[in-house]
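[audit] Reproducing an earlier prediction to check determinism. Same input, same settings, fresh worker. If the tokens differ from the archived copy the diff job will pick it up downstream; this log only records the rerun itself.
[audit] input (123 residues):
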Amino acid sequence: MSQNFSRERRIVKTDDFSSVFRLRPKNRTGHFTLYARGNTLQHARLGLVVAKRLAQRAVTRNMIKRVCREVFRKKALDSMDYIVRLSASVVTRRNPATGVQLKRLVKKELEQLFAGETQNRES
């Protein structure tokens, strides 16, 4: 379990994103979709896609990315490329963006997303 998120643990190239997106999603929650593809490295890598149309405020987008990186660092994952994509707006009229409440919701869903991945690995 690594506690860092250096550049080598990130997916940054467009080609790498495209190769992972060609595959079907591995897991979904209410707001997020997880894509995964094996890699030849000794560690897992993470890519994030948080569209502006789904989270209009930069503060919200950055919080989502920060929480996702935190959850990723704390999980023991296989050597794969993972992409987490925000697939539905987390801020709605019924669920306004209050900092603590929104962060708790995002963290819970991301932990479910990666927990499903670790359960698949153990089976």
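[audit] rerun output stored. Observation attached for the diff report: The chain has three helices and four strands.
[audit] end
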